[in-house]
Specification:
2 copies of one chain form a homodimer. The first copy, chain A, folds into 2 domains: 91 residues; 377 residues, Orthogonal Bundle (Neurolysin, domain 3). By secondary structure, chain A is mostly helical. A 3-stranded mixed sheet of chain A has the order 1-3-2. Chain A is globular. In chain A, helix 11 packs across helix 17. Helix content of chain A is 64%, strand content 3%. Chains A and B meet through helix 1 and helix 2 of A and helix 1 and helix 2 of B.
């Protein structure tokens, strides 16, 4: 006889596997699908999403969860699966079907409207839809978490337990110190030399370099792939099938290489999930913020650090001798850490990036509490850009229309990028305390210590702990923007000769 | 209000789209999946298959079909969808679930056992499983079509309406004429020169050539792809997403090129399906035999014909000048039409291929009517090879264990290869009568006439007609082995200087 818990596992495994299939359809669509198949693929994904929804809202699942509520003596892993299943079931069933469908329809339409509005630089074409999406997401939030302010319910979807009450003071602290740091950097007379980063870099050589570095960081190519897509991402269907992508420009290899390293960080999290119960929610990545902490850890803490630059300069010089024969590792280090305000979030460096996020966070907060009107957004955006970064976008295409998130109703997603950056700096500080010799290890090409530490401390823990408890357990601290600020100030004041 | 018929369409579209997803999972597995994902992929496919099965056997679907039985005034397209849905539903629901599961389990296990037995040349390791599979498929047949002999029910799965009563006399006719033709060819003093087909052919050049020829035949790369897999196949998810594969050997480009052309023929059938109702069964390919007729039409009737060889020799010579600078188109034509008995079906030429099929057909027939014992198969196989082709396999690996079909319980599949070859020859004869100038058109590089004719006459008709009625409508004739024999005799007696 199957126990109720075993029955639950069977159901959860089924939806997890269907979710994995969705992952492959998505990857295929972004990487390899013939252009003519867009419509048929959308329909296939629609049917699969409907099937997953049916299974996630099956009243029998509800009864099973009710029965399990009355049982006890579960271990932590089992408890976590029950908790996750309950959360998911409630989320899926609390919202009336017509609202779910309306949201799905408008998000899908929203993407097309946004693509057009962005290319034509016409915010007014996107505004009515954006307004509707905000309204729908407010209503959605009232169903899902009536006890929370509606923006908190949206944040919670991506960063569980993340609330305005926690995030606002953290972001205020960042603002108060980053704005002056960014100004100081701008005013510095010292500008790192970057001319050797320009040149002609054949795609095959870039690909070989990226693949080798990804493999040395620890990405397992027998359980993953690396391909090309318009926007780099990490997808796939299972910890044994993790697929990262990058894109190539022949006049710049750094962008692609660091995208590979970033996605490798995401990929290691997925490949490194706990060895048992991999089709169950307890093994899944904890939150978007923690996921981002893993990609940023490798991209910024490690690969943009001086030891890594020293370790990999010979390989880079061997790959692109014309550009790197006369470059020192200090020069490479400074060149990959240039900080400069820019209009576009995804191109921003680690110092300016948080300001892009805070700007969006403040706008979203205002949209949800009613203090910001949709039609004021372009103006508001530009004035905040001026205030935070000292630059003003010449068009909405390069301003308020640049991101896809709002067109898909993904409000509350942006904060996780900067929460991830903060977590990464906290994890890095702890790792450095535990392994004081880390710099030498990296210099000698040994990256296994880092990989194993992240794996044990974070990847293998799945969802057993809350985000706050995980951070506490690993670092002994709460979410702490000061550590991130100290890291940035120390690093960039030195690069820009600021004291 | 939705009519019953509209409700049916919605259900059929849903299963068709889920089937398309299965197509992508299968393609991905064969072409691109990381090796470590085999287990997780198998589980994903299992869950999807289960979901499709649930939907196909939903009692509500049964009631809907019962209600539709009482309605009328449907057009041919609607009637076809109802007929196909009924057939599918009955097939899925008539068989007890434990038999379905037992078959799925044993077929999956069968594949592994067969792979091992083949590599170790141990038929006795495969025999017990094969015996079980035949028994299960006999029981399966009694449930599905109790009115038919059990082997007929199996054939019907791949070639609807194909029965031993129809096939046996056709195959007897082929045997009676092919065995002497094969002997005559063997005895001929004339052997076409083939040395120029050996050499060093870089994969990139082969790929470029294959892609160009596939495109000129009419394969639309915006609605399809061409990739590499261990065994060439045509898959994908929809008429707008058709994926063909080939494989490359650097010492032989002909094998790969003709695999591309063969799969292009399959691909054109899929891409050329009727423009409406593409997610409904009425639009689907009619049968395995008709599908094979399309691939063989392009591979053999057209691309192995003299006009095509003349038309494409310059391109081939431009691609591989070292080998082809001094070759005439007659020489190319003869070289790609060498006929010689061999052990392996998939490597056989068009004259000897039917004998491989007939041998398997006779064995399967015997297994199902009880006149053949499993443990006599190796001996029986070898004696038939000797009788039909004059060669005796040195091992079971090269004999009775060579094909994967039996390990997956796909009894009754083999005949469709040769039925396809016969249909292809009949279609070709009709086309030649309608377009007497075809040879000149091909020589001048115009393949559109052929493509359009096949599209109109066959692809766009979907499943509206039965196989027998389609063949009758297109050719004015029934399945007629004499036309195939005339084609072979005329072609090969000339090549081998037999009169």
């Amino acid at each position: 006889m199957e126990t109720n818990y075993q029955k639950l596992e069977r159901r959860l495994e089924e939806t997890s596997r269907l979710g994995g299939i969705m992952g492959i359809l998505h990857w295929d669509q972004e990487v390899i699908m013939p252009s003519g198949a867009a419509e048929s693929r959308a329909r296939q994904m629609g049917v699969l999403a409907g099937t997953i929804h049916e299974k996630s809202t099956d009243p029998k699942l509800g009864k099973l969860l009710d029965a399990l509520d009355k049982e006890n003596s579960f271990n932590a892993f089992e408890e976590c699966n029950i908790r996750e299943a309950r959360r998911e079931y409630d989320m899926e069933t609390k919202v009336p079907k017509d609202l779910v469908m309306k949201l799905a329809e408008l998000s899908s339409k929203g993407h097309q409207v946004w693509v057009k509005a962005r290319s034509e630089n016409k915010f007014s074409d996107f505004a009515p839809l954006l307004k509707q999406l905000v309204e729908l997401k407010k209503r959605w939030a009232e169903y899902v978490s009536p006890e929370l302010p509606s923006y908190d319910a949206n944040i919670d979807l991506y960063e569980r337990g993340g609330t305005m009450a926690k995030i606002t003071p953290v972001f205020e602290t960042l603002k108060s110190e980053l704005i002056p740091l960014i100004r100081d950097i701008q005013k510095s007379d010292y500008k790192p030399k970057t001319s050797f980063l320009s040149g002609n870099f054949p795609v095959e050589k870039q690909e070989g370099l990226g693949r080798r570095i990804s493999e040395e960081i620890g990405f397992a190519f027998d359980r993953g792939r690396m391909d090309i897509s318009v926007h780099p991402f990490c997808g796939g269907s299972h910890p044994t099938d993790v697929r990262i992508t990058t894109r190539y420009r022949t006049d710049n290899f750094i962008e692609s290489l660091y995208a590979v390293i970033h996605e490798t960080g995401h990929g290691l999290y997925e490949q490194g999930r706990m060895k048992v119960g991999r089709d169950l929610p307890a093994s899944e990545a904890l939150s978007m913020g923690i996921h981002e902490s893993q990609s940023l850890f490798w991209e910024r803490m490690i690969a943009q650090g001086p030891a890594f630059c020293k370790s990999y300069l010979p390989l880079i010089a061997e790959t692109f001798p014309e550009n790197f024969n006369a470059v020192s590792s200090d020069q490479l280090y400074e060149a990959v850490n240039v900080s400069e305000p820019s209009y576009i979030r995804v191109e921003a460096d680690e110092v300016t990036y948080p300001m892009h996020v805070i700007l969006r966070y403040e706008i979203e907060k205002g949209l949800f509490d009613g203090s910001v009107e949709i039609n004021t957004l372009p103006e508001l955006w530009n004035s905040k850009m001026k205030e935070y970064l000292g630059v003003e976008p010449p068009s909405d295409t390069l301003g308020v229309l640049q991101d896809t998130h709002w067109s898909g109703a993904a409000f509350g997603y942006f904060p996780s990028y900067t929460l991830g950056a903060i977590y990464a700096s906290q994890f890095y500080k702890t790792l450095l305390q535990e392994k004081p010799d880390l710099g030498n290890e990296i210099e000698s090409g040994n990256l296994a210590t880092i990989r194993q530490w992240l794996n044990q401390e974070i990847h293998e823990k799945g969802r057993l702990l809350s985000v706050a408890n995980l951070v506490k357990q690993v670092t002994g601290d709460d979410l702490n923007p000061t550590i991130f600020l100290d890291y940035l100030k120390k690093k960039y004041r030195k690069i820009y000769r600021l004291n």
